[in-house]
Amino acid sequence: MEDKQFFGKLSQAVIKGDSEGLVQLVRGAVDKVGPLAMVEEGMAPGMTEVGNKFSEGEVYLPELLMAAEAWEEAMKILRPRLVAVGADIEKQGTVVIGTVQTDIHEIGKTIVANLLTPAGFDVYDVGCDASATKFLDKAEEVGADIIAASAIMSTTVPYQRDIIDLLVSKGLRDKYMVMIGGGVVTQEWADKIGADGYGELASDAVKVAKKLVARKKGA
Amino acid sequence: MISFLEVLERATTGPMMSAKEYDMKVFIPAVREVVKKYKIRFDPDNPCPSDDDIADRVYQAGLELYSKVGTYCTDTERIIHFTKDEIEQAVYECPKVVYFGEGPDRVEWHGRMPDDNTLPHCHVGSGTNTTEDVALRMVEAYGRITKGKTVSIPSLTTVGTLSASSGSPMEILAGINMMRIAREGLRRAGRPGMAIIDLHPSCASGIGTVASSNPEFGARKSDGWIVAPQAEMKITYDSLNQVAYLSSWGANIGQEAGPILGGYAGGPEGAAVVTLAYAFHGILVVRATYHLTFPIQMMSVCSTTPGMIFLISTSSQAFARNIGAPYYALGYAAAGPATKQYFYEAAAYLLAIQSSGIGIEDVHPNRAVGTNQALPIDSEFTCAFGHGNVGITRKKANSIIKKLQEKYLSHIKDPPKGRDLYECYDTETMSPDDELRRLYDEVVKELGDYGIALR
User: Fold this and answer.
1) Chain B nearest-CA residue for A184
2) Could you tell me if B102 and B307 are in contact, meaning their C-beta atoms sit under 8 angstroms apart?
3) What is the ipTM of this complex?
4) Which of A163, B48, B132, B249 could form a disulfide with B398 if both were Cys (CB 3.0 to 4.6 A apart)?
């Protein structure tokens, strides 16, 4: 019962984006409660709730980012302990995400990154104005499953195709799933360039990413 | 007013921090603070409020917000700060009238007031993607709508068979080609002096602006040249390069901002305040003589939900009552072109902005996504709306908006796709097919029953 109450507090601290409060709770309990339980039974349900509310338009980007920040601060304490006890959070996959070359719009990919992380993905953000090579280099470095590329402007969407062209030319097309999104991106465009996944809205990303990882594992 | 050189100096001497730190530690807390302090509240039952007090509170909140957050320069990683006094002085001194175009097509654009009984500035056209084969006739069609006083020209995404990718030479060529095409289209429409004020949708970079502004290609400083920020309240050196060039040339500069409801600004209340605050950024940093806003809702990517209507109404009223410079708003409908829902959404948005005291522009169908989605009939509708509803009050607008929203809100998530230009127009004569003409006539009648006149 005590644990349940404690996990509820962890969850609430994440929902409120209360980094300080969450860190205090985690520090206070770190020798008594298992790190995996704190993550999976306490923090993760809070993060899932924030993600769901964000997708439904009940909370907004500031709440999502503050929750993600609180999560990250707590994880700085919990990560080494998870390693020490050999516990593993169930991982969905690894994603390299960014906004394509010459495009400096960051909100879309920031949201997607912040939704994917609590959903169990390891996310590596290559930032904005990222060349196809930058996406691929990072994907190779971290052993990614998915390359996720955002483009907001009609003049920058062609660079999403460049990522696929680069994979093809390097003989790596089958190694990575490519998902694309962004304001002017459509399913039609995704089909045209041979992308594996497309999300109309940032909130579609988790579903699409999970589907792609399942497809990759099944292949 | 603070000089542009002073702005540049502050861009290189202001407080330094990362963009993330600016978002999380400066911008978000400041928005939350002013929304609370000035008691800005969104009431879904009152999307277009007629209470001057809330408009003025949004103004005060925006003023205080901008004095706290300034504009973040992404290249120097510094904040360009202004004091409240400096902002107020700039508002006092900024031009309240702008002149566009040449000869008999020259127009004068003044600010209006909420519930104003003067004709709003009617702006036509669209900067959305259009194929090269039809771009000339599109501009000509826009030019033929004589109630439209200024025009937006399409964005070309190709140069022949090549993609006009951002930052590439193809983008520059697309910009130059579109400039030539647009001027020729307006000549064919008999309005050679009509001003194009969305320059430049095909090449939005600094170098694109400079390249396409050569008079040889038809560009004029009496057109309108737009400089955009990054969401939220950030500017790049590339944009400041545009300002340096355009202000030295003496061109009309427009500040364009697309604040995001659900983004860093938060909900409708914060987004309303941020939308208004962009005016200060526009006047001081961009040196704008006219202002365009196109807020969007992050999740629905459209502008016609109750929260969005509240946002655009209150921020427009705040601007009109307290700044009074030329200002207009662009809306995005969820519905595709040539659908009844598109016209319902467009009418709701136009009701909000016209009654709130600013200029009007075509609402873009299908969330402004896709190619050849904008239609000349959208522009005809905008102008007929503007002329037919002179003097409409916010109170009346609010009541009609609510009725219209009953018709379309449940379809926002899964809107009708509609038909693109090639599917519903004879692109040789640029006339709508019988089906679209019938649909339009039915819409005119339906809207008439709600008290909306189209003239």
Assistant:
1) B369
2) no
3) 0.90
4) B48
